[in-house]
Design a protein that fits this description.
Distance between the termini: 27 Å
Number of strands: 15
Oligomer: single chain
CATH superfamily: L-arginine/glycine Amidinotransferase, Chain A
Radius of gyration: 18 Å
CATH class: Alpha Beta
Number of domains: 1
Structural class: alpha/beta
Largest sheet: 3 strands, mixed
Strand order of the largest sheet: 2-1-15
Number of helices: 10
Shape: globular
Mean pLDDT: 92
Order of helices and strands: EHEEEHHEHEEHEEEHEHEEHHEHE
CATH topology: L-arginine/glycine Amidinotransferase, Chain A
Strand content: 15-25%
Amino acid sequence: MPSTDSQLASTVLMIRPTRFESNPMTAESNVFQGRTSATPEEQQKLAASEFDGLVDVLRTAGIDVVVVDDTADPHTPDSIFPNNWVSFHADGRVVLYPMEAPNRRTERRADIIDQLGDEHGFQVSEILDLSDHERAGHYLEGTGSMVLDRTNKIAYACLSSRTQLDPLGDFAQRMDYDVVAFDAVDRNGVPIYHTNVLMNIGEAVAVICDAAIARDDQRDAVVTRLKETGHEVVSLGFDQLDAFAGNMLELRNTSGERVLAMSSQAWDSLDAEQRAVLQSNGKILTSPIDNIERSAGGSVRCMLAEVHLPTL
């Protein structure tokens, strides 16, 4: 039975970077990152400008953006991607996740959760902390590792060093989700580190680089499940995967309209037919974040933690 949860959030949490740079602790599992010769200081300056530009685009389109500044100490070079350590749910629960890189674990901040309640009127009923899985070397990096169909309570997950079955099953059991797990690789056969790099699920449209799913039976199962839940499926190619076209996020603005946020590079990679489907579904929001994509190997969707919490 589908839940009453909305697939689309109208509020997002974003963390403004303070010491952004390509993270050496995540480089081995993320082939998208480290494509820059800029110094750490240059990466931070560019990232801060790109961050502010994306915030402006979202707010202008009627999305409520909660911005929290990162702390300088401890050094968290990937803090710009909060959706990896936390997710917020319509029943008031907040989930904290086990992170593979030690320097990403300090991104988890209780003060941010408190701020959502104290300053923005959101209600937190329970904090579900899965980070203890780190002690066993098992990881699940939030809505990077999982692409959630919140309405149908399905968690899609491509398995990797950052997305493992034990914490995935723990999340599914506690949050009452079904799991659709699969293996996915890039054009060179390298495992894709996060599921949200290759797919996004909106209300009516799902975007996926299904060619990256390694096994035919798994590919058929994923596409079939998406269609069975009423989604029109837009397939991406590997060039579009590399351009972060899979890393988009559908939201709902204050006027009740669907908006689809992605980087300028992602939009530029799409063909006319793909663009037509997406434009008929909602308003397209784009912003250039080339430095963030090259340095850290993540894009717009990674920067947005949707706040589905009820309000007081």
